[in-house]
Amino acid sequence: MFSRILTSGLFAGAAAGLITALLQLYFVQPVLLHAELYEGGELVHFGADPVTAHPDLPGLFAEPVRDGLSIIFTMLTYTGYALVMAALMSVAERQGHEINARTGLLWGLAGFITFHFAPGLSLAPEVPGVAAADVGARQIWWTVTVAAAGVAMWLIAFGGNLVSILIAALLLMGPHIIGAPEPESFSGPVPTEIGALFAARAFGIGMTAWALLGSFAGYFWQAEGKRAEAAA
Amino acid sequence: MTTKTLKASAAGTSVLPALFAVVLGLGIITLTGHVQASALHDAAHDVRHATGFPCH
After folding, report:
1. Contact A87 B52 (CB under 8 A)
2. Helices A64-94 and A101-112: crossing angle, nearest 10°?
3. 3-class DSSP assignment, residue B36
4. Residues with Cβ < 8 Å from A51, sequence gap 6 or more?
5. Predicted ipTM of the assembly
6. Nearest CA in chain A to B31
7. Tens digits of per-residue pLDDT, A114-143?
8. Residue-by-residue DSSP string for A126-153
9. How far apart are the C-alpha atoms of A127 and A129, rounded to whole Å?
10. Quick check: B25 and A87 CB within 8 A?
11. CA–CA distance from A109 to each of A9, A25, A115, A210, A214 (Å)?
12. Which of B46, B48, B55, B56 would you mutate first to test chain A, the one with the most A CBs within 10 A?
């Protein structure tokens, strides 16, 4: 059982993580590098003069160590997600729910809502150089929000009655009604256009990543199960 | 129904494997996403921003 969870999690996480890392490097990283020009003071916004929206940015893999580490850490992160997902898939299957690449897509979207969208609704994915509250406080809020959203997704998917849905709605809204830690003042030097594009790209690539992760996890879960049955 | 019963018995009744995988997975996510040790933070910096973790 554990080897089935481990194998599906590792395969799905590594595959989805690698694709995601490449998508992030192409679609998200240039926006981050652009923001860092403002963070470091090389470009200054909000002055009297307009600033070019198209500065020279380092190309893909211009910093191989930095980008290589990003690929490794993306694969690791998505492997972490995939292990949690495969473990929960094992529980759901034991309760009689079918797990395959198709249902995995729904698992992936639920995972996206849990780990990206729910915390990101109040703590929007941030570029370097924007004002934000203390990182420790934000991490606590992030963790609680993700945990609440995860339980909510399970209740919506498998609760099967109105009370479950209502509890899920409360769990999803609660952290945002209480409110995320916010900065005391705005001091970030990065143009809003860059911040908005970054958040949109992070969400878009995140959703793609989770759709892939869920489908892959469902596929490998089923394939590993068949392989184990054939071997038995 | 028979298949289901067989599957259920093959899966065993213990939730320990699932629990252990969840702990392992969350541990990896904490390391890559949250731990503020500077070497880890610097290596994971771009990923944390792009994946929506609170970074710094």
Report:
1. no
2. 120
3. coil
4. A43, A44, A45, A191
5. 0.92
6. A77
7. 999 999 999 999 999 888 999 999 999 999
8. --TT-----HHHHHHHHHHHHHHHHHHH
9. 6
10. yes
11. 17, 22, 10, 6, 7
12. B46
Residues A132 and B20: their CA atoms lie apart, in Å, by 34
**Letter for the amino acid at A118?**
A
Q: A222: closest CA among A108, A97, A113, A111? A: A97
Q: How far is CA A229 from CA A16, A103, A104, in A?
A: 26, 21, 21
Of B7, B11, B54, the CB nearest to A138: B54
Mean pLDDT estimate for chain A:
95
Q: Is there a contact between A77 and B12 if contact means CB atoms under 8 Å apart?
A: no
Helices assigned H by DSSP within B1-56: 2-11, 16-33, 38-50
Q: Please count the structural domains in chain A.
A: 1
| Residue of B17, B25, B55 lying closest to A84 (CB–CB) | B25
Residues in chain B with CB shorter than 8 Å from the CB of A203 are 52
Q: What is the distance, to the nearest Å, from the Cα of residue A65 to the centroid of all Cα atoms in its chain?
A: 23
Instruction: Identify the CA nearest to B47 among candidates A23, A153, A195, A156.
Output: A23
Where in the sequence is the domain holding A49, given as residue range(s)? 2-231
pLDDT at res. B13: 56
